[in-house]
Amino acid sequence: MSSRSAILALGLLAAGPAAAHVSLEVQQAPANSTYRAVFRIAHGCDGAAMTRFTVRLPDSVTEARPMPKPGWTLRTTARGAAPEGHGNVPPLAEITWEGGRLDDAHYDEFVIRLRLPDRPGELFYIPVVQDCEGGTTAAWVEIPEPGVRVTQYRYPAPALRLAPRN
């Protein structure tokens, strides 16, 4: 593990999942594996209900399949063409659920199955954006700079540690 990774890991651990309003249920997974990303949404935006949730997939995610959610319309934005073969889908740049409603007093989860990059030891950030009634937005897109604690950011992106593959 590089010293940069160690510093970032300490910052992430110090913040803990309670520091962010959007977090991942499982915060460590083997690099270059299929991962079930469960995004936990603690509430809406400053008292307003959430009506759209967007996940911005890093370029290093080569495969992603979102889970439909009753009461929400699922929309995807492709990054390129699908590779040839049965069941192959194009790499995705964004996944958005919209048209539903998550009241500020409630909690919910959104799920994507994705292929993680092959970078063991790194923290892998997945930026997300909550859009709420009245035009309020919470963009959880901040990726900590080396040597800066995640707790120093107001809107840190959800992150997970890429562990060595067994």
Main beta sheet = 5 strands, antiparallel
Q: What order do the strands of the largest sheet run in, or round the barrel if closed?
A: 6-7-4-10-11
* CATH architecture label name: Sandwich
Number of helices: 1
**Count of all domains:** 1
What's the CATH C level?
Mainly Beta
Give the helix/strand class: mainly beta
Specify the helix fraction band: under 10%
Q: What is the gyration radius calculated from CA atoms? A: 16 Å
What is the total tally of β strands?
12
List segments where confidence is low: pLDDT < 50 over at least 5 consecutive residues: 1-19
Strand content: 35-45%
CATH topology: Immunoglobulin-like
Mean pLDDT: 86
Compressed to H and E, one letter per element, the order equals HEEEEEEEEEEEE
Through-space gap between termini? 16 Å
CATH superfamily: Uncharacterised protein YcnI-like PF07987, DUF1775
**What is the global morphology?**
globular
Report on this model:
There is one protein chain. With 166 residues, this protein is mostly beta strands. The chain has a single domain, classed as Immunoglobulin-like (Sandwich). It contains one helix and twelve strands, in the order H-E-E-E-E-E-E-E-E-E-E-E-E. The longest helix is centred in the first third of the chain and has 13 residues, at 3-15. The radius of gyration is 16 Å and the shape is globular. Mean pLDDT is 86; it is low at 1-19.
